[in-house]
Amino acid sequence: MKKRFKVLNIILVIIFISPLLLSWIPYQYFESVIPASFLSGDYLNALLTSFQELSITLATALVFAMLISVFLGYISVLSMKVGRFFQNLLNAVESVPSILIALFCYAPVSGALVSVKGPTSTVLSLAVFVAAATVTVLPEAVRSIAIPLIDLYNRKYSVSFRSYGFTKNRILNVLMKTALMKDTLKRVAAGILLKTLVLDTSFGYVIQVGLGATGTPQHTSPGALIAANRKAIIDFSSTGDFNPWLFWIPSLMLLAVSIAFLIILNEAKEEV
After folding, report:
1. Rounded to whole angstroms, how far apart are CA atoms 74 and 139?
2. Cβ contacts of residue 78 below 8 Å, gap of 6+?
3. Phi and psi at residue 33, in whole multiples of 5°?
4. Which class for 125: exposed (0-12), middle (13-18), buried (19 or more C-beta within 10 A)?
């Protein structure tokens, strides 16, 4: 029964995460299926491009944030003095809303991103956002790794390691390979993906509403696409000139991807 439930979860995750996968299919294939009267070619291209960039952002942020989180979590347990220092630093960061951190990181380079086009601007925009996303997810990620790791270290069987003369570093290396820590890392990864998704959507929406197209010159976000078409649900009932699906399609796609990450997060919690 447990295996069937796990297989069902895998199927659901694949289905809900499909918007990120399908976005890499050239939009010309979708044009033959979706009538132009329903979605224009320009909008369809913008929709797929936004989810392509979202998938790149999620993958980059996951790798970068996981590496730093595992390192800091490990070091925090290895050295209590260093651990307290990072704990105080991350607690201060956690008190600042994530959207403000993203905007603060973006503001110094916004002028350059508007004036400079091409690969350099795209890479710079991605780097700035991933840095901001990493800062916002680190406090909980590091805490989620350090707490179970130090709990494992203080359990009875680690005492036998110490009695045989194992160093703390060697013991922690062994503990990091246990099933509990693997499930913990899985849960941390799902949390990072979910938080980065929310931040990306919020950031794109806020910048689009505040600055328009020049606000996100090289950071195409589904949130910006939703904000650009928000009038589609505000004015549709009165004028009939707007297509509400321009707002709801990216919104529902983001909801599906979020549910996929929540399934992974919930499954990892149950295993722990």
Report:
1. 14
2. 168, 169, 172
3. -105, -40
4. buried
The H or E element spanning position 86 is helix 80-94
Task: Find, among 233, 215, 232, the residue nearest to 224 by Cα.
Answer: 215
Distance from C-alpha of 152 to C-alpha of 207, rounded to nearest angstrom:
44
- Say which residues have a Cβ less than 8 Å from residue 130's Cβ, sequence separation at least 6: 57, 60, 61, 64
Is the distance from CB of 200 to CB of 102 less than 8 angstroms? no
Phi/psi of residue 154, nearest 5 degrees: -90, 0
pTM comes to 0.87
Residues in the chain: 272
Residue-wise pLDDT tens digits, 199-239: 999 888 888 877 665 444 456 789 888 888 888 776 644 44
Q: What is the pLDDT of residues 248-265, one digit of tens each?
A: 999 999 999 999 999 988
Which residues, at least 6 apart from 153, have a Cβ–Cβ distance to it below 8 Å? 77, 168, 171, 172, 175
- Contact, 172 vs 151, CB < 8 A? no
Quickly list DSSP for 154-212. Answer: TSHHHHHHHHTT--HHHHHHHHTTSHHHHHHHHHHHHHHHHHHHHHHHHHHHHHHHHHG
Backbone angles phi and psi of 177, in degrees to 5? -95, 0
